[in-house]
Amino acid sequence: MSIVVAGMSPVNAHHSSAPHFDRDTMIELDGVVTEIRFVNPHAYVYFNVKGEGAESVLWRCELSAATALQRRGWTAETPLHRGMQISINGSPARREDNVCFLNSFSTPDGVTVNRNGNLLELGLTGAPAFEVYADAAEGRPEYLDNGQPNLSGAWVRLRGMGAGGRDRRPALPGNLTAANADNLPARPQNNATGQAAADLWDYNFDNPALFCRNANIIHGWTHDSHVNEILQETETITLRYGYMDLVRTIHLNGSEHPNNNTMSTEGHSIGWWENDTLVVDTVGFSPNTMIPIREIMHSDQMHIVERYRYDSESERLLRSYVVEDPEYFVTSYASEDMMGISAKPWEPYDCVELAGDNNRRAPNR
Fold it and tell me: What InterPro entries does its record include (predicted)?
């Protein structure tokens, strides 16, 4: 049986969930777990709720991403498992029956766990504490055997570090120089043409994540602090994103982009070394969103120049970048982010989207 309590806003509501779940309504559900799908971008718990008659009704409730839950001690069998009796506090889906956003659940022992609950703090797991960053990189070579500065390995975004830095260097797109790059905004703004494209795009239903795709090479590198990996060869450098399994190949043996580029999310990248800094020039993007939640769009004319370098003193991988799009942006923008050495290796994201009809447009739209 479910009890609906209207007009109550759950704590820690996430801005991206409101279009798909009624976060101002809470429901209480008692049931027996039948299945756990421990996947990205959202895990789901399936459970039977006793209906009005003798038959049970199958529900599913959305959790956070499996990789995010793993950092808090969760597994495919802990703290939820098949056959377990649970009481769930959730918010109902807007476009599908018997679906909810899980706010919290209570175990038979009376322990309440919220959707991002830390099992280590709650004493619900015997697993060791999850280490995000590796210890000091003793023995990490400054250069590889092929002579390249060593950027290789697994990297994870530093907490609180996304865009907004001001450390600029030369090799910028178009007519930009290091001096005027410092005066660029840290976020893009669409011009009239870009806004017209944005008006035809709806974050609630067109967000690339709903289709297991990355938005772009800037957003995906830092999104949700997944572990990225850099693989260095003499003629190519490969960037494997931890989010949505995006793979980029940086070609070090060419000074120009080919004329017959196939447009893609990752574009076509050429790179070169300026002392110990890797400079990457990328074009050939398929039109997409630049910042999904803000509904900022980019065109196929977008051009990005990134600069990667490893700072041995702070043991940080620094990426600064400048993005221009004369078709959709008011002006170019510039920012940076930082990565720490990850204590965990890169692993596939293996996106499985289980949202179903709740994340799809109504048929009459």
Answer: DUF6152 (IPR046150)
SS3 content of the chain, % helix, strand, coil (to 5): 10, 35, 50
- How would CATH label the architecture of 153-341? Beta Barrel (2.40)
Which residues of the chain are in CATH 2.40.50.140 domains?
2-129
Give the pLDDT confidence of 138-182 residue by residue, as tens digits: 678 999 999 999 999 999 998 754 544 444 343 445 444 444 566
Start and end residues for every CATH 2.40.128.20 domain found in the chain: 153-341
Cis peptide before 79 (omega within 30 of 0): yes
Q: Tell me: the pLDDT tens digits for 86-119?
A: 999 999 999 999 999 999 999 888 899 999 999 9
* Max intra-chain CA distance, the chain: 74
DSSP state of 118: -
- Residue 169 · residue 310 · CB < 8 Å: no
Architecture field, domain 2-129 = Beta Barrel (2.40)
DSSP 167-195: ---S--STT--HHHHTTS-SS--B-HHHH
Torsion of CA 15, 19, 25, 27, to 10 degrees: -100
Omega within 30 of 0 (cis) for the link into 287 = no
CB contact at 8 A, 43 and 60? no
